[in-house]
Amino acid sequence: MPERESFEELALPLLDSLYRYARWLTKNASDAEDLVQEAYLKGLRGFESFLAGSNIRAWMFRILRNTFLTSRTGLRAIPPLSLDDEPEIAEAIADEATPESEFLQRLNAEALGTAIENLPVEFREVLLLCDVEGMSYKEIAATLSIPIGTVTSRLLRARAKIRKALS
Amino acid sequence: MNEHLTIGDIERIADGESQPPAHVRECARCAAAVLDAMQLKRAVRDAMRGDPAPASLRRAVRRRPSPMTWLAAAAAIVAIVAGALLIARQRQPGALAELADMHATLLASANPVDVVSTDKHTVKPWFESRLPFAVPVPDLEPPFRLIGGRVVYWRGQQMAYLLIGKGAHRISVFVSPRPIGGTEPPNVSTLTWDSGGLHCVAIGDVPESDLVQLQSVWERL
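Structure tokens for the assembled complex are given below, as produced in the milestone run.
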């Protein structure tokens, strides 16, 4: 039987990703550092409950997120109403909301950054997990403890909002 | 299947969650929409990537996982934690050191790679039929050149192995769906980074700046 890997071996390579996630959750460098440190401490303390061979990334991201949500900034960031109640837009046909390729060619990185910053935190995080971390819908659903359908609808609406903000 | 795709279909394709249907090959409008979604995805990735964790945070997490705002009572916990980390580190042979050994073993072998090709369009599909994840194979430019690849097994998991040349030097890149950590081994340079949800480790008898340069090629994938 292979020796169980240490917490450090599994969790340290995730530092850049966790810090990035913390930055996008808190929008503040020093809050992000505190959040990451606290998440590592909690992860280490709870490592006994981590099932060897299961997904350490989803596990650490979940710890970081829960830590954020129970912090003061996190409580403020939770929207009063559910974001997932809006009508379905997934069924719209392609050309209604798309695809002027010039839209992307003249896409301004700074404007895009601002548009992402202005998104509600639930939208920012699915974009980050999908587009930067390259997680599958299933992994995002597991990390955020939400159904896959909610993952796809948040992604759709996040991207629609970005397109609208940049158009 | 001549129906136009919905926005939902297009994003699932761009996100790699489903394969494009035959319709995309025939319909310029849907093909353009898929391309557009991929471009937006890439732009978002670049915009959100940000800076790596500051070195101070890395040190803090490694050695003293103690947020400064914590009460004095936490200090006791921190001491225990730091002790546990130290013991864990001493007991655990470094994963990176094991990969450095594998690097040396493979280079000493008569056939270090199973697919010999400088062409990413040969190497990438070769992995597709052998691994459950898509291996990112970059377009290398001088001074780097692709030599080939193979599948390796390490601690009960499959990884992709790419062999890259720089002059007479050889660099091994291991690509794994699981993170790899541990302390850095002596005598060789190592660099770890994440790419598209996968975890890469480069090892070689070259200056670390070469590995950083190689990583930047990966980032352009």
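The CA atoms of residues 94 and 132 of chain B lie 26 Å apart. The beta strands of chain B are 115-116, 144-154, 157-166, 169-176, 189-195, 198-204. Further analysis is deferred to the final report.
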